[in-house]
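Example (one chain per record):
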Amino acid sequence: MREKLNEFFAVPANIRQEFWQDTVQKNRLSLIVISIMIFGMELFNMARVLFLSNAGLGTWNNRIYFSMYCILFLSAAVYLLLQYMLRNSGEKLQWRLQIAAVAFFFLWHIGLNAYDLVRDPEGETYIFVTAVVGLAMFIQMPWLCSTVYFGAGYGLFMLLNAPVLEEGVIINLTITTIVALAISYTRSRHAVIELSQRKEIRRMNTRLEQLLQKDPLTGILNKRAFENCAVCAFQEESGEKLALFMLDLDDFKTVNDRYGHPCGDYVLKETAERLAGFFSDAVCVGRVGGDEFAALIPGNDSAEELQARGEKFIRLFSEVNWQGESIRVSCSAGMILAGGGTLSYEEIYKKADEALYEAKRSGKGCCCLKED
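Predicted structure:
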């Protein structure tokens, strides 16, 4: 039971910042609406005292009411001004302003209703009820803050007015306050649930995006994701050259036929891992075909150095251990050094593919480099 209560009231640490941002944003809108309503109602009340009352400001009673209407009107104006001035401040400062404004508005309604009951002990308590219900419906607060506000407001109202209230009215006000407090608790809990669900949805979407970009067997980028990355890289206006390195396994069908497809899959995964490890400075590494791989690497080195780098990878990638048995593998590579916006990615890819098949025709197991 205790764990369930803690779960109901607590704001998880992973969404606490978002909870405060959500609370401040919702309360900002609510308080703007409340302030506009205050302007309209208090202007009407002030006009009613000045022009619709026979005594005008000639009696103390009218002066007190008129003063209270002016105070609430001015407090709403001051709040809107401060909110505008602090609009770019942090959530904590804005929250303090909001909670102070809510406290003042709540206390004002308690004071006005208390004065009504002083004048007429048989008067209504609808002003306090409206304030309590409005606080629960319009303002989002964590449970502890809600408990303090509703508890203190109810206690103060009873302290001021209990002697003149009938027992039935006290019971109704108590029930109303408890219900309003429950509404406030529930609203805060719903906000926590909604924010947690949003965070989980974002996490799942991010994971799905990552899965859609990756080749399911090797874990590196799939063909589409690699192309998108390469297109963006070649379109950058930095003017730096890039080298597109394309790799194709030689006689890969023989591996599948001799050792089986599980071994073939292992060779593909090992190829991807070694390619990503060898070209650790690559912009992106991907699988662009059944047994074809590509890496987009910086073209800072000379053409000779880049070709030497490609040939070094081919030499290092000469065997794979599969279930304790050494399997001889080889690969051919084509490389194109391009950049500066002279060619599109499709043209660069075509030239790299041509270089790759030139390496195949040269006897396999070698790297052929071309420049745009």
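Caption: DSSP finds twelve helices and seven strands in the chain.
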